[in-house]
Amino acid sequence: MKRISLTLFAMVIAFSFVAAQSAVAHEVKLGVKKLVTTPLGGMPGKEAKVVRLDVGPGWKVGHHTHPGHVFVYVISGSVQIDVDGKPAAVVKQGELWNEVPNKGMVAKNMSSTKGMSVLIFSVGDSGQPMTVMSKK
Is 21 within a domain? Predict the structure, then answer.
C-alpha cells in the first residue's frame, strides 16, 4: 500500500511540474500587455494605443492587416515582416518599423531559440481593433 501511495504521490508531483512548465511556456509564447488606449485631443474619432508584445521562439502571426497606422519598436530579438508585394524586411533590436494601414502582411520571430519583445504604437479610428486577421 505504501508503494502505491508513494507512486501515486510521485505521479501527482510529476504531473504538477509538467503542467506548471506548460503554463509558463504558454505565457512566454504570447504575452500582450495593453499599456494605454486614449482618445487623441483635437482629432475627433481617433485614438492611440500602445501595447507590449512578448513572444517565444518560433512565434508567427498569420496574414493580417492593421486598420490604422502602426509603429513597431523592437526591444529585444528581431522580427521578419513580409508585406504583400514587397521584399521581406528584418527589424532588429533598437529599430523601428512603420506599418501602413490596410496592407496585408505576416510576421515572425527570427529566432527559433530566443523570445522577442516589441513595443507597438497604433493610431487609428476609435474603437477599431489594432489587428484584423485575414481569411487567406
Answer: no
CATH number where 75 lies: 2.60.120.10
Segment of 4-8, 111-115, 132-136 carrying the highest mean pLDDT = 111-115
Domain membership flag for residue 81: yes
State which residues form the domain around 104: 29-133
Helices (H), the chain: 2-29
Q: How many helices (H) and strands (E) does the chain have?
A: 1, 10
The count of domains in the chain is: 1
Integer Cα distance of 101 and 85 in angstroms: 14
Cα separations (Å) of 89 from 44, 52, 83, 86, 121? Answer: 34, 20, 8, 9, 19
User: What is the dihedral sign for C-alpha 76, 91, 73, 49?
Assistant: negative
- In the predicted model, is pLDDT for residue 10 greater than 70? no
